[in-house]
Amino acid sequence: MPIIVLSLGGSVLLPDIDSPNIKPFISVLTRISSNHRLFVVVGGGGTARQYISMARSFEADEAFSDELGIMVTRLNAMLLVGALGHAAWPSVATSHTEALCAAESGKIVVMGGITPGQTTDAVAAVLAERVGADLFINLTAVDGIYSADPRKDPMAKRFDTMTPADLLDVVIGQQAVAGVNTVMDIVAVKIVERCGIPLLVMDGRDPSLLESVLKTGKFVGTLVTASKKTPFQL
Ligand code: UTP
Predict the structure, then answer these.
(1) pTM of the predicted model over 0.90
(2) What is the DSSP letter of 74?
(3) How far does residue 221's CA lie from ligand 1's centre (Å)?
(4) Of 116, 151, 173, 188, which cross-links 66 as Cys (Cβ 3.0–4.6 Å)?
């Protein structure tokens, strides 16, 4: 079975506790797991940012704020575990090794954050390397990687394919503070570069798109790969 690691942004799954988007993912992830080995790393979304900004108002340091963010990612991950029911391993893996062990069950393995100073994109990239994923997919609230922020610059262009080195150029100037909202974590990009696993960055808000990408290999988004081979074959 092909091995897929998903970085499922909190902004996609649970933008806010009052506006969850978990239900549409349940059937899609369950179906995908019948013919793929599936690992899902869940982000913190709006709730993580609320906690982080409250901590900052008490002048907490960034690492403390990261710890709070990690707790929220794990809370969101646990919610997804509950929503997936028997299709998922019943606890949130708190290390990559734990995720590997849980995968022996054949069930969907869910993780959140693990260590301060990074985001769940980095957790997912390392997991992709660790499990020898065939494809690493970053499901975000934007439909790919752009030359500039498309919300601010109408001339911004989406890249269909790019190399990890190109992506590093895009992310290199990003801030690295708790709760940061960026294209992709620089640590994640470095891992993608070293492991050579193709990374697809796509809009995750409609999970049916994910299913069709895995069926057809055709995507709307950005494929980050050194080989520039597109569409990919699983
Ligand atoms: P993420 O940034 O990964 O979640 O984690 P997100 O914001 O929901 O992701 P996107 O933007 O939708 O894709 C939230 C925060 O938790 C801390 C960081 O402060 C991060 O900004 N975190 C997360 C860590 O410090 N370490 C981790 O391993 C994961």
Answers:
(1) yes
(2) H
(3) 21
(4) 116
